[in-house]
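Hey forum,

I'm writing up a methods section and want to include a predicted complex as supplementary material. The small molecule is guanosine-5'-triphosphate. I've pasted the protein sequence and the SMILES. Can someone with a working setup run it? I'll credit the forum in the acknowledgements.
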Amino acid sequence: MNLESNSWIERLRSGDARVLARAISTVENRAAGWADLLKALFPHTGKARVIGLTGPPGAGKSTLVDQLAKHYRKENQTVGIIAVDPTSPYTGGAILGDRIRMQEHFSDPGIYIRSMATRGSLGGLARATADVATVMDASGRDLIMIETVGVGQDEVDIVRLADVTVVILVPGMGDDVQSIKAGIMEIADIFVINKSDREGAERVEREIRALQSLAIRSDHSRGDHWTPPIVKTVACDGTGIGELVAAIAEYEAYLQKENLVLQHNIENWQERLIEMLRDALLEKAREQMKDGNVARYAAEVAEHKRDPYTLVEEIVGKLGKASS
Ligand SMILES: Nc1nc2c(ncn2[C@@H]2O[C@H](COP(=O)(O)OP(=O)(O)OP(=O)(O)O)[C@@H](O)[C@H]2O)c(=O)[nH]1
Ligand SMILES: [Mg+2]
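Reply by user p_vandermeer:
Happy to help. Structure tokens for the complex are below, copy them as they are.
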């Protein structure tokens, strides 16, 4: 399969899962031609709905995503799932679990699941996830779900790409709702209390409401007046999935009605462009210095032979000249 040939875009857009997998790998690994690939695909993007789902480890995110996928498949929508696990290496349990999920859905080409983990120095995970979502979007998937373990800034950055963000909590977290990182609570367009078959769902609901009454929704620069609803689910038996689907649709309708879709997209691209610029400039700087030089410079600074401020100014100054 040659991604340079003209026919592959057609094959990708006709739903060829092998071409999709190949294109995603190329982009994720920053393999030869990745940038040209994304350039060619970009005109075909912007149609998929992107739903981000995040929550603590084991909250039932994958189970919930599977239920949603089944629901949307019944409506004949094609689904792409990106399971991002920044905490575990490729051999980790969550990724293994996702492999099993992939097999379960194997017979349905309308569901495509991809797992991702941190990839070292090749740009941030949020960036890679966004690029993979772009490929899925271009391939004509109607709906893309991005699942992340809600543990830190990485996850906030990732789910920020989504049109709709669902934050999943579970009973028995005690006072943890508070400590769950203000950052994650603030990005919720919809709250899900999963494992509502367990004791304590009402308590979690009360805690969310209490937090909501304190916070003004000026968060992730989405200054809208939406009050995130709370949906109780039991993901493993499908209870509440219909309500969650309805809540998602309601928020999307709200965005349409208030003309917020474009505004949200602009805000997302503002973040993404800055990250892309940062990556590109850093790569240029690295190219120019070669890796050995970074170590040498570091030694010089550590030994106080030169100051880092002037050094960085000099390197950045050279970048502009190098490009002309
Ligand atoms: N009792 C109960 N168990 C559930 C529910 N939803 C999921 N589970 C179980 O919780 C466990 C974790 O579910 P996952 O869907 O893998 O959770 P996750 O959030 O994707 O987990 P990580 O990706 O590892 O963070 C599984 O054993 C599920 O069967 C629920 O509503 N009630
Ligand atoms: Mg999972």
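Some notes you might quote in the supplement: The mean pLDDT is 84. The longest helix spans residues 261-302.
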